[in-house]
Amino acid sequence: MRMNRRSFMIGTAGAAAGLAFGGGAMPAFADATQLRAMWWGSPDRGKRTVAVAELFHSKNPDLSVIGESISGDGYWAKLATGMASQNIADVFQLEPSTISDYSKRGACMPLDQFVPSTLNVDSFGKDVLKLTTVDSKLYGVGLGLNSFAMFYDEDMFKKTGLTPPGPTTTWADYADLAVEMTKAAGKRGYWGGPYGARYNYVLDVWLRQRGKSLFTEEGGLGFGVDDAKEWYSYWEELRKRGGTVSADVQTLDQNVIESNCLALGKSAIGMAYSNQLVGYQLVVKSKLAVTMLPREKKDGPSGHYYRPALIWSVGATSKNGEAAAKFINFFVNDVEAGKILGVERGVPMSPAVRAAILPTLNPVEQQTVQYIELLKDQVGTYPVPAPLGSGEFDQNVARPVADQLAFGKITVAEAAKRLVEEGATKLKRKS
């Protein structure tokens, strides 16, 4: 696979942009079967993916990969277009919160037919494979383990003399710390942390700490209006105390690194996924550190669980399913590919790859591995798969409701009612 340097494009927010390689300018591979790959992520992720695809082609001259990195919500729009036109990419990226939704909507090809002849996942463990199994069929392969996390600007904490958050930090502790950081930093347009009401994955942890869940086995919401009121009240109070970024900053966040308030230099703390530390550190000049999300009680459950950081699935409309499965197998099992990928998409699932890359990791990458190790006695059971419609619940209900609340257009009570009622409708509509 060759990358056409001219195909690098700078796009607007939410548009297909960032990295596109291959395109139609690949005469050297005219006789090779071409696979289309599609993902989202940082430029660093794109470079690593391109390098692995090139390595794959060098070892499989009859197969080449062309691909596209798409930023923001543009990714899901592109996937929807592919589904509507029956032209889904051969290999495309999903995450734990979307694999159930999209597999049930017919986007993903079952991979069981390729196991173990083409796709070797024996070393991953049955529990790990459950994370990408929906209705007893394997619809994706996890690319690495991660969990939710808080990143913080270690340099800023040293500068201000404040003690950074840690594994036993409670939500009450965090609120006080975020407010103190805003004051201590003394920078205009700079705050302690994000307006986290917008993050479904943080709500997920919050609920699990309280014996609740984001979704039920039946595919409905696992919480009620009172739970939502408590959630929104926390973030609204913290916003009014000055501990969160302003509404206009938070609404810029498209769940990608570049638009997060920490990456934008607007806060000392960010909430994200542990594997993203590598990408964050590439765009943040200060030294970053990672710890767990706050918990309800110091000795209470963390709410954390191991999850596949990201997932490769094969498009249901692909005419090259076996070749696509071969590429995925290479991606997760080849040691040289593993050294290229590092832990940018999470700690490798394969024990052999994990052992091979550990000596090659830089200090930032080692932090992500250490974080996964830190969690081994803290994680709980994996939740039920996200139901059909969960993506719409996140993008079209949870985020807009949180934004309207932050801008003062609705009250906490109205936000809580809308989250539950409109959220339930989205899920019901898709069931």
UniProtKB/TrEMBL annotation:
Cell division found in the keyword field: no
Leader sequence residues: 1-30
Main localization (coarse): periplasm
Keyword Signal in annotation: yes
Domain of life: Bacteria
Similarity comment: family membership: Belongs to the bacterial solute-binding protein 1 family.
Organism listed in the record: Rhizobium lusitanum
Cellular component aspect of the GO annotation: periplasmic space
Protein name stated in the entry: Multiple sugar transport system substrate-binding protein
Cellular compartments annotated: Periplasm
PANTHER family: ABC TRANSPORTER SUBSTRATE-BINDING PROTEIN YESO-RELATED, ARABINOSE-BINDING PROTEIN-RELATED
Keywords carried by this UniProt record: Periplasm, Signal, Sugar transport, Transport
